[in-house]
Each structure stands twice: as C-alpha cells, then as structure tokens.
Write a structure and sequence with these properties.
313 residues; alpha/beta; Rossmann fold; 13 helices; globular; disordered N terminus
Length: 313
C-alpha cells in the first residue's frame, strides 16, 4: 500500500529530544493498555503496532503487563494517505517491541525505526511470520492462520522481554488460539454453502478469505491490485469488471470502504442498480473491538450477502 511518510528529519530529532525529557527512566510509571482501555501495571512492556489489528493481538497476549499503542487505529483513516507524526516517533523510540506488517505495506515505520535505533528493541514483521502469503498481496492479517503465527511470534517476544511471566503469556496465547475457532467455523460454513460462487472484489484485501471460503473471484487481478496500490486500473480490466456487473456474473461485490476512487464508486453504483449485494470490508478495525470480533463480523457480512443473492436461502 502507498502510505505517505511525512515525518521530516527535524521532526524525528524533536521526537528523540522529547523522549529523553519526558520519557526518561524514572518518568511516569502509570501506563495504559490503549487497545483495551485497561490500566497497565508499573513497568509495563511498551508495544507499538503499526496497525490496530496487530495491537489487538498484543493486548490480548500481554494483558495488563503491556502498554500497547496502535498507530493506524481507525477505519476512518485512509491507510493510503496516512501521515505519521512526532508523537508516533516518540512511541516507536521508547518501545520494547514493535510490530509491523512488512511486505512494503508500512514502509513509513521502517523510517521511524531508523530514526531511533535501539539494539534491544524487538521488531516483529508479520509478513515474515505468515505461513500463507499471496503473491503481490500484503494483507496477511486477513488470513486466520497467519494471525495465529503472528500471535506466536508476539508471545515469544513478550517472553524474551519478561521471562518471569512466561506462564502468563503462554496461557493467554492458548486462549487466543482457542478464540479463533469461531472464525474457522464461519469460513467452513461459507465454503460448504457457497463453494464455487462467483464474486467480485474491488481490491486484493479479501483474497485471503475468499480462497479458504471456496469463492470464485471473477474481477481481474490487475484491477484489484491497482486499486489496492492506489493506482488507476488498466482500462481493459475496468471494462471487464463493468461487464461482469452489468451481466450479473458476480453474485456479490466485496469492497474496501477505506479505499474510495471514482472507478470503485462507479462500479458500486452500477452493482447497486443491478441489485447485486454490496459487502463492505475495512483494512483496519473499528474502535472497541478485537481482531476476532472484527473479522467474524466481516465474514458474517459476506455470508449474509451470499444468502441475499440466493434470495435468503
């Protein structure tokens, strides 16, 4: 994804200065697990996640022993146009653990890490941990199996930072793994009911779900990839996508509501006019939930859209 980096060198320098003034050893001890809203204990492990779905995982694994900050933390933020800040630079500078997606998705974080080098900091790259990666598709968090692997990597990092709390972290990991069962069940349910159903996607984000669900994506890949990367799709792929909608060759159209372009707006309008159910998804979580609740809600929306396309059957 094209996420804009606009933290100037002077900003990075200011961040480091502020860090040593405000967050020096002996500074404020009361931290907050920002992802859960629960107070974190004194000496809590500082964790920065580039995106809130990774922050959610870290919060669940660390409980009140972590203070988690997610930089991109609202579905109202367009990741394509994200602008990092001095405040974000400070958080990265003081973090014991940093979680990023990698795969050229959040390169702005690499620049923040370079601006505040720390040999003791642990950096987890989800794209490196993910066992299932799709070519040209960095959205690995949409794969439930991938997120389980990321959770294991985060758990290992927490244990490395605080070995004395290993039983606590391992227990939380087991609880997290068990909580993925409803997601896997929903994927299996959709696969059994709708295997082979043709669907449309405005971009690649949902391919990590449609594959395991057994859905047949008809939208040209170069159309999806261009929209995902913030580019104009090739005219030929736009024509194919429009024809698929006009002829009702797709049963539902899944779209990323955080990426709105004239091309996608026109396609959505055309699908709506043709009576094709529209299913919105997002790249980042809504506030107040967890990775599991967010992803299950989106899977359920896909299932509901497919049901509506069949007339409620």
């Amino acid at each position: 994804m094209k996420i804009v980096w606009k933290l100037a060198a002077i900003g990075a320098a200011a961040a480091v200065i502020i860090y040593f003034i405000v967050f020096r050893p002996g500074g404020p001890a009361r931290l907050r697990n920002e992802e859960q809203g629960a107070p974190a204990g004194p000496g809590a492990i500082r964790v920065v996640a580039a995106e809130d779905f990774y922050g959610s995982v870290a919060s669940q694994l660390g409980g009140n022993l972590v203070a988690v900050k997610s930089i991109i933390s609202s579905p109202n933020i367009d990741p394509h146009e994200y602008e990092s800040s001095v405040k974000d630079g400070i958080a990265v500078a003081r973090a014991a653990i940093v979680i990023k997606n990698g795969l050229q998705y959040d390169t702005w974080l690499d620049k923040m890490l370079s601006a505040s080098p720390s040999p003791g900091r642990i950096v987890i790259t989800a794209g490196d941990s993910a066992p299932r990666r799709l070519s040209g598709n960095p959205h690995v968090w949409y794969g439930v199996d991938n997120m389980e692997a990321v959770a294991k990597a985060v758990d290992n990092a927490l244990i490395k930072v605080r070995p004395s709390e290993a039983p606590f972290f391992k227990s939380n990991l087991a609880r997290f793994q068990a909580s993925l069962a409803p997601l896997l069940a929903k994927i299996n349910e959709i696969r059994q009911k709708y295997h082979g159903t043709p669907v449309g996607l405005t971009e690649t984000i949902c391919l990590y779900l449609t594959g395991p669900m057994g859905l047949r994506v008809l939208t040209p890949f170069d159309f999806q990839k261009a929209i995902a990367e913030g580019n104009d799709p090739p005219a030929a792929s736009v024509a194919v996508a429009n024809t698929q909608v006009d002829r009702k060759e797709i049963k539902i159209l899944i779209y990323n509501r955080q990426t709105v372009t004239p091309v996608t707006t026109a396609l959505l309008g055309q699908a709506r006019a043709r009576g094709i159910p529209l299913v919105p998804v997002s790249e980042t979580m809504p506030p107040g939930g967890t990775y599991q609740s967010w992803m299950l809600a989106q899977m359920s929306a896909i299932g509901n859209g497919l049901s509506a396309a069949r007339g409620g059957r």
